Amino acid sequence: MISQWVHVNVHPNAGKDVLISVGPGRFEAWVKAKPMAGHANEAVTQLLVRYAQVPARRIRLIKGRSGRQKVFRIIGT
Known about the structure:
Conserved Hypothetical Protein Mth637, Chain: A
């Protein structure tokens, strides 16, 4: 299995859900969800699911649970 680390700068409480690549392994994410009770983290995870085309169980939030700068690990096949 191939593992990839991605850095995501998150903008919660936005008008739409969008994920934009800004460089190798770096993304900007705008999510409608509020940064409460992990809702924004879950929204970003779902954007990464669609981008990487892997099940959600293969994406883990490694760092930045309560901040805007996050690091995710995506485990591919």
